[in-house]
Amino acid sequence: MVCVPCIVIPFVLWFFHKYLQPFILKFWNPWEKKSIATGDGPPKGVEPENTEYLYIQQKTKDHPVMVFGKTTCSYCKMAKKVLDETGVNYEFETIDNKDDCAALQDMFLKMTGERTVPRVYVGGKCIGGGTDVFTLHNQGKLVEMMKEAGATFKKED
To answer: For the whole model, what pTM was predicted?
Structure first.
């Protein structure tokens, strides 16, 4: 037998994200004034020849939509699910099996102000993490951002 909270809590969360959050965000958006790194050069205190910086810059330059994440991260799965729903072709780089995982996350902190994954880049600019991607999609802004960045989309059969 399943307990009541196991049924009620997921339903409440689904209802909130599906109906209440988009309604609230029409009037108040806490992410609107969030500073996002522009990608106009290395952040303060970072050498332009830094290996991690160059790696991130090259990956985001090569792919219009680039996601850095980990295999067991639930927010990474959320971001991937949203991107899959849009039908965009994106690159997902798993960093938890890399030797320089901690150094990459430290570079994310310097570049974007956050060390956590996923770090989602559209057109070479970080748009945030899993919840930011979810919110942009709910606001109807994500697909337009990706189109402006030159992203390609899977054809529907």
So the answer is: 0.74
CB 86 within 8 A of CB 146: yes
Count the residues in the chain.
157
**pLDDT one-digit tens code per residue, 13-59:** 888 888 888 777 777 765 555 444 445 667 777 888 899 999 999 99
- Within the chain, where are the H helices? 4-15, 21-27, 51-62, 74-86, 101-112, 130-138, 142-148
Q: Is 15 exposed, middle or buried (0-12, 13-18, 19+ CB in 10 A)?
A: exposed
Cα–Cα distance measured from residue 128 to residue 67, given in angstroms and rounded to the nearest whole number: 10
| Angle ∠(61,66,70) on CA atoms, nearest 5 | 135
Strands 91-94 and 65-69: parallel
